Amino acid sequence: MKVILSRKGFDSSAGKQASPIMPDGTLLSLPIPNEEDSNMFSLLQWNGKSYYDIISSLNPRTECNICSKCHLDPDLRIDSKKRQPNWQPAFGQMNAALSHLRNQKVSVGDIFLFFGWFRETVIIDGHLQYKKDGLDAHIIYGYMQIGEIISRKENVPDFLKDHPHFMYNDAWASHQNAIFLPTNMLSIQPSLSGCDVLDFRRDRVLTKDGMSRRYWDLPDYFKDVSISYNTKSWLNDCFKSAGRGQEFVMDATPQIIEWVKRIIQ
Which of 10, 151, 206, 237 is the most buried (most CB within 10 A)? Predict the structure, then answer.
């Protein structure tokens, strides 16, 4: 089994602000802007508020506007928009990032841990704001154990016809596109779903206390495994994650599997 730490959502270049840790602990990953996609921030919902309302409340100077479109991927929250019958969560990947997953032999049964840049938020005078001096960190916000990999457009089921990767015809034609679907249940913890979002919890924070978000506080046994894009990342007392690359792949030792179970439970 392999474990893939998969960086997703707003960052300093795409979106240019952190995704929010909502006051109730929800880790609301904001999909990156992309005008070639069909989803609009203003039509995606969380607890009755649009993603655009949340973004603009947190950052009144945002470059996003009410018509801005976004790349909703991974698509994990069933209640973020109207769904087709038999909908399932899905994650698409293409081109260089997909080639990296293939080169690393990622396959059915492997587990994605999705992480991103998050900041704590508070409500002040009815407005959602980033919390002054609040947590600002890389945090794991969701997971997916791979149950199926769709690599041909004609095999995409109807409920995925509105997934952004369905529309990338050139990538399908060059065999540089794929959509990952989850298992029904998590093999390492069968009482749990094969895919879900996670709320905020301290042990889901990757960033080391007092450090910038790229510096992670991973257990020492991670030093015994090779993590793609991160061949010389260990410092004396922390792990400096790569600034580039979306998918960080490693072989799952028994200790890492137990770590994954603790993160997800």
Answer: 10
3-class SS at 223?
helix
Identify whether the C-beta of residue 110 lies closer than 8 Å to the C-beta of residue 104: no
Q: What is d(CA 190, CA 193) in angstroms, rounded to the nearest whole number?
A: 7
| Mean pLDDT by groups of 10 residues along the chain of 265 residues | 98 95 98 96 97 98 97 97 94 97 98 98 97 97 98 96 95 97 98 98 97 96 96 92 93 98 96
Residue type, 179: I
Go through the chain and tell me how many residues it has: 265
Instruction: Copy the structure tokens of residue 127.
Output: 């407005």
Q: Which two tokens stand for residue 226?
A: 């090779």
pTM over 0.90: yes
Q: DSSP letters along 172-205, please?
A: HHTT-EEEEEE-SEETTEEEEESEEE-B--GGGB
Which 3 state secondary structure label does DSSP give 210? coil
Domain spans, the chain = 2-8+78-264
CB atoms under 10 Å from CB of 103, counted, come to 10
Paired tokens of 124: 């002040």
